[in-house]
Design goal:
Keywords: Membrane, Transmembrane, Transmembrane helix
InterPro entries: Acyl_transf_3_dom (IPR002656), Acyltransferase_3 (IPR050879)
Number of helices: 13
Oligomer: single chain
Transmembrane segments: 41-63, 83-102, 114-132, 144-172, 184-205, 217-234, 240-260, 272-291, 303-328
Number of strands: 0
Organism: Bosea vaviloviae
Order of helices and strands: HHHHHHHHHHHHH
Number of domains: 1
Distance between the termini: 24 Å
Strand content: under 5%
Protein name: Acyltransferase 3 domain-containing protein
Radius of gyration: 20 Å
């Protein structure tokens, strides 16, 4: 599962690095064609299905407990808030010092407040996204955490049905009666149903569903095949089409990763990927800083090789993520959990 999280974060980084490679090539006169092999932003879909799985799997001991909702929310806040707030603050500081390095105008106070509070707001370019635009996924995650917290206040048997009903209700409301006002319009997108898919896989796992090695390979191959086809299908990034193509692929990949019949000793490459998977949250939030910083360096030095830029940027993003995970993310999470009593 951690290896899959590493792959998901890396896919998002590949998606973003190619935009900067295009800009670098245009400025230097070099030729560069972005890779359309995969819908690289499908890494987000994988993250959402994984999140649904992990919330059920890792929080099983909280169901039915009087303090379950409190502990769940405190643990998730301790895990998510410190690094995201740090990344948002760094982004704002960069915007003050080097406004030309950003892709948007200066945010107003409402957008800044909404960013720190995980509340969907309209940006200066008319999109519903926070100041640090990658945080749009965390706004969905926080919706899921809030609903999960409320669900844990209910009797054990009602928790997951209530969460599923709430997510489905948001999507149905936006689909049938939309467009609704922000933030309901944002929360009502089909992508939130990928959390439901992850929860369903966790329930299958808890009820003893297992796949043999050959079956896991077939299921994973089918997931990859769906992504390969989706990259070539026009309109596959539309909300419902993305759910059908990318969401289904993500569910298959998570099913293959989670529901092994037995625990085999991981190979060396898988162990290395798992290390990156541990730092996948840091990789997701840190990689734009590395990519844009290296692009500025390449431009100042007059280096116009997009391929070299991509290799160094992705490698640097992984190294930076591992360092940030060890030096900041883990200590900050431990500190927050102690302070919150979680």
């Amino acid at each position: 599962m951690q290896a899959l999280r590493a792959a998901a974060a890396f896919m998002v980084a590949v998606h973003h690095v190619q935009y900067d490679a295009i800009a670098l090539a245009a400025r230097s006169g070099a030729s560069f064609s972005p890779s359309l092999l995969l819908p690289w932003m499908a890494g987000v879909d994988i993250f959402f299905v994984v999140s649904g799985f992990i919330m059920v799997h890792a929080s099983a001991d909280l169901f039915g407990r009087a303090d379950g909702a409190r502990l769940f929310l405190q643990r998730r806040l301790a895990r998510i808030v410190p690094l995201y707030w740090a990344a948002t603050t760094l982004f704002l500081l960069v915007g003050l010092v080097l406004p030309g390095a950003l892709n948007s105008g200066a945010p107003d106070l409402a957008q800044i407040a909404g960013s720190y509070l995980f509340w969907p707001t309209v940006s200066t370019i008319g999109l519903v996204q926070p100041v640090y635009s990658l945080g749009w996924t965390l706004n969905y995650e926080m919706l899921f955490y809030a609903l999960f917290t409320l669900g844990l206040l209910l009797p054990r048997a009602w928790t997951l049905p209530a969460i599923i009903l709430a997510l489905a209700g948001l999507v149905a409301g936006e689909t049938l009666a939309g467009p609704l006002a922000v933030p309901l319009r944002f929360w009502g997108q089909p992508i939130v149903l990928e959390f439901v898919a992850g929860m369903g896989i966790a329930l299958l796992w808890r009820r003893g569903f297992r796949l043999g090695l050959a079956s896991r390979v077939v299921v994973a191959a089918l997931g990859v095949a769906l992504l390969l086809v989706a990259a070539q299908v026009p309109g596959s990034d539309a909300p419902w089409a993305a759910l059908a193509w990318r969401g289904s692929a993500a569910a298959l990949l998570v099913l293959a990763a989670a529901c092994g019949k037995r625990r085999e000793a991981p190979s060396t490459p898988v162990r290395w990927l798992a290390l990156v998977g541990d730092a996948s949250y840091a990789l997701y939030l840190v990689h734009p800083f590395v990519i844009r910083g290296l692009r500025e360096l390449f431009q100042r030095l007059g280096i116009g090789s997009p391929l070299l830029f991509i290799i160094l940027a992705l490698s640097g993003a992984i190294v930076a993520a591992l360092l940030v995970h060890r030096a900041f993310e883990k200590p900050a999470t431990r500190f927050m959990r102690r302070k919150l009593g979680a």
